[in-house]
Amino acid sequence: MNLRESVFSALLHAENYISGAELAADHQVSRTAVWKVIEHFRAEGCEIESAPNRGYKLVSHPDLFCESYLKQAVQDCRTDWQFHYFKELDSTNRFAKTLATRNAPSGTVVIADQQTAGRGRTGKSFYSPAGNLYFSIIEKLPLPVSDMMSVTACTAAAVFLALEQFGITTQIKWVNDLFLNQKKICGILSEGSFNAELLSMDYLVIGIGINLHHDPDCPEELQSIITDLETETGKRIHKYDLLTAILKQLEILLDGISSHSYLDIYTKNSCTLGHRVRTDDGTEGTAIGFTEDAGLIIELADGTKQILRTGSAVVID
Predict the structure, then answer these.
(1) Which of 6, 36, 175, 200 has its CA 20 to 30 A from that of 157?
(2) CA atoms within 13 A on the CB side of 165
(3) What are the tens digits of pLDDT across the range 73-126?
(4) How many other CB atoms are found less than 10 A from the CB of residue 296?
(5) Tens digit of pLDDT for each residue in 231-263?
């Protein structure tokens, strides 16, 4: 752990003031070196009080990455979460897939403040400006390829439950989006590599993007489609508190994925069921339920039923 992260961790965990002399001694540096680090934090938006003979106290801070803070937050998890952080990446999913091919363990998490080439389902771009939460998780689960959609739906349920911990109730749009006040605030993309001989997954990469704050430069064509948590709720959630909440919920739900325990949450909070939808091939019908693996059951006008497992279903009324 470098000096910057170590001092930030000490400030985060201090219950009151912590002296510059104590910080300097703990890290075997001069008090001037500590002061310079503190000034860098202030320049990045941290509010840090200083008082003679008392030291420094962290009053508020932006979403600065601190691995030791994350590690402490998930120390009660069964998974040994490993974090890789970047100010900017083209795609956290792409980087996570590269790590997975190099035998990165299950529980590896790739985080970026900004994505320059974020991707959604069916090859669509995923707008990813700085300031929001973008991360991808490597999972190595003994799952058949047919359960791929279950992982996406399970992840959506985990994000739903995590947001509820912050007093925010969303709705889940089949199969991979979360909506708030009828606008998208979260997208999920699951990708993987499978063993053709065993028909099972070698690894999965689960990408999650959540809009936390208002973006004044949001493209006009997206303004009626997407929104953010702060605009809709007035709450400013620290991204890494939300990240750890999601990881904890996902660990629990993935443990029970073979029994489809996530499906009750997913179904009760769906904003797709009960509505008429149109599929990519132009088929129209009413969304009436989900299969165990999260396939969307659509009832057509003639009463026949169709199960949708790929593509999209656009709500038309």
Answers:
(1) 200
(2) 16
(3) 999 999 999 999 999 999 999 999 999 999 999 999 999 999 998 877 656 778
(4) 25
(5) 999 998 989 999 999 999 999 999 989 889 999
Helix residue ranges per DSSP H, the chain: 3-13, 20-27, 31-43, 67-73, 92-101, 148-164, 229-233, 239-255, 263-268
Q: Which CATH number belongs to the domain containing residue 50 in this structure?
A: 1.10.10.10
**Angle CA 35–67–69, to nearest 5:** 80
pTM above threshold 0.70 = yes
Are residues 153 and 222 part of one domain? yes
**Are 173 and 78 contained in the same domain?**
yes
If asked whether residues 220 and 284 sit together in one domain, one would say no
When the pLDDT of each residue in the chain is averaged and rounded to a whole number, the result is 92
At residue 205 the predicted structure's pLDDT band, cuts being 50, 70 and 90, is very high
User: Is the pLDDT assigned to residue 34 strictly greater than 90?
Assistant: yes
**Radius of gyration for the chain, computed over Cα atoms and rounded to the nearest angstrom:** 22
Long-range contacts of 253-262 (CB under 8 A, 24+ apart): 253/154, 253/157, 253/158, 253/161, 254/139, 254/141, 254/151, 254/154, 257/141, 257/143, 257/147, 257/150, 257/151, 257/154, 258/143, 258/147, 260/150, 260/292, 260/293, 262/150, 262/153, 262/154, 262/157, 262/158
In terms of domains, do 299 and 257 share one?
no
| Residue 160 and residue 115 share a domain | yes
Q: What angle do CA 92, 64, 57 make, to 5 degrees?
A: 165
Residue numbers of the domain that contains 80:
67-268
